[in-house]
Amino acid sequence: MLRIVVCVSGGGTNLQAILDAIDSGTITGTQVLAVVSNNGSAKALERAKARGIEAKVISPRQYGDREAFNRAFTEEMKALSPDLIVLAGFLVRIPPQMVAAFGNRIINIHPSLIPSFCGVGYYGLKVHEKVLERGVKVTGATVHFVNEGMDEGPIIAQKAVYVEDGDTPEILQRRVMEQAEWVLLPRAIDDIANGRLQIVDNRVRRQI
Length: 208
Ligand code: GRF
Known about the structure:
The protein is an alpha/beta fold.
């Protein structure tokens, strides 16, 4: 059984996709131990509670400085001792000591085709605003392992989504979530739960 903790910051639609996929059997052999958010009013926490899953809040604002938060967040995660940490719309940088402790057992969903439109400052709606500003015709989402960089870890999977005339950032974000994020993240979790992924020379291979 793959025991996972899901980290969230906002609406929790990616978390919901995971929970629904577990219920429908799209994800097998997986149990959500807890949902952790830096935002006490995140709707994602309500989604967890509705499913009887422990919902925890841990925020940098609760600590005097970022280093104290990083230590506490890492200790909290070690205490939960998940097999996999899933960042699902989580907007706080993962502490280096957590990356070191859970190397290649942390995955993230990013709403663009990495290496485009990623890195510092590229999150949430901002990603789609920049996509429309640049006028690219194809965007999408990427699920990747988390390393000490920002959106730089080995890529697990990507899915392309067409930009359409008249798209606003909100319309495009929704299409990317529906067509890419909510598909890629559950599939990546199921692949990991069923031992289908291998990392060779920092690149991910999927074996059916
Ligand atoms: C969305 O911008 C999504 O593209 C990104 O995180 C944000 C919130 O997602 N992954 P969620 O609804 O909280 O899962």
